[in-house]
């Protein structure tokens, strides 16, 4: 149902939502490590080595020996990087974020290591059986990386949809509400996206929205030169657009077109 409402709201299809949610303790430990708790960092790296190895094995499609394989060392470094870079405000849990960082670093490694071999000349298709096997392996790696990147992008969007769903609850807004208030015409949708984007860019009005959990209707009408009826009719829709436009949902910003109209606040 959530997916159907999302499609009706934005007029586009969206991937299914299935989010794993680790406990709060993990995220708190990560924050402690970021604040200089060396023991917390060491404990995280030691405790989650099986998770790291599993992520690498899934990516490489083979068993990974932590003591011998370079891929594990790269993933271990990426996990440490994830600890340093993680922000709970980004809308995802730490393990999901860490997996993305690990996979991206592995992709970089594969590209660098295979760069001169990934180009497949036509003449190579006429090699012997051993060459053919090597060639197929390189092609499979390239295709696997492409597919994995697409899957990770879809998962990023699913994470943000789940995070946005939770954020909207604070304002008494559901996806069902958004589907009902969704503008029926493209020009109306673009107009409301612009209003929501400028609301997020207006520090005073957006702070009012965040503090009071209510749309500053009167001030927004004056700033946008639109009728109160228009703002009231699409109140929940504008709240959702403003939250996305504020910057905590980068993939959704692109997905609904908020990043395609120039600078923030531009009319």
TrEMBL record:
Q: Where is this motif: Polymerase core binding?
A: 70-83
The region annotated as signal peptide is none
Q: Which residues bind DNA?
A: 217-236
Where does the UniProt annotation locate this protein?
Cytoplasm
Q: Which GO terms describe its cellular component?
A: cytoplasm
- What residues does the RNA polymerase sigma-70 region domain cover? 44-115
List UniProt keywords, sorted A-Z: Cytoplasm, DNA-binding, Sigma factor, Stress response, Transcription, Transcription regulation
Q: What is its main location?
A: cytoplasm
Q: How is its activity regulated?
A: Negatively regulated by the anti-sigma-I factor RsgI.
| Record GO terms (molecular function) | DNA binding; sigma factor activity
For the biological process aspect of GO, one term held by this record is: DNA-templated transcription initiation
List the HAMAP family hit by this protein, alphabetically: Sigma70_SigI
Relate the protein's function as given in its record: Sigma factors are initiation factors that promote the attachment of RNA polymerase to specific initiation sites and are then released.
| Family, per entry | Belongs to the sigma-70 factor family. SigI subfamily.
Oligomer status and interactors: Interacts with RsgI.
- Designated name of the protein: RNA polymerase sigma factor SigI
Q: What is the lineage of its organism?
A: Bacteria, Bacillati, Bacillota, Bacilli, Bacillales
Q: Gene name, please?
A: sigI
């Amino acid at each position: 149902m959530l997916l159907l409402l999302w499609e009706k709201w934005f007029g586009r299809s969206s991937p299914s939502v299935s989010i794993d949610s680790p406990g709060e303790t993990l995220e708190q430990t990560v924050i402690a490590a970021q604040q200089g708790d060396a023991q917390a960092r060491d404990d995280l790296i030691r405790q989650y080595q099986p998770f790291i190895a599993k992520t690498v094995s899934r990516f490489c499609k083979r068993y990974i020996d932590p003591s011998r394989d370079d891929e594990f060392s790269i993933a271990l470094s990426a996990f440490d990087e994830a600890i340093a870079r993680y922000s709970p405000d980004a809308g995802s849990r730490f393990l999901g974020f860490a997996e993305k960082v690990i996979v991206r670093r592995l992709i970089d490694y594969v590209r660098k290591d295979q760069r001169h071999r990934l180009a497949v000349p036509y003449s190579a298709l006429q090699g012997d059986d051993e060459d053919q096997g090597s060639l197929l392996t390189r092609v499979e790696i390239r295709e696997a990386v492409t597919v994995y990147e697409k899957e990770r992008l879809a998962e990023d969007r699913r994470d943000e949809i789940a995070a946005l769903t939770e954020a909207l609850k604070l304002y008494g807004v559901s996806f069902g509400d958004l589907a009902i208030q969704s503008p029926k015409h493209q020009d109306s949708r673009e107009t409301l996206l612009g209003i929501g984007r400028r609301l997020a860019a207006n520090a005073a009005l957006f702070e009012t929205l965040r503090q009071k959990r209510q749309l500053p209707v009167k001030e927004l009408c004056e700033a946008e030169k639109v009728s109160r009826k228009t703002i009231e009719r699409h109140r929940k829709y504008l709240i959702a657009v403003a939250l996305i436009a504020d910057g905590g949902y980068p993939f959704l910003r692109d997905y609904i077109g908020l990043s395609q109209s120039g600078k923030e606040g531009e009319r």
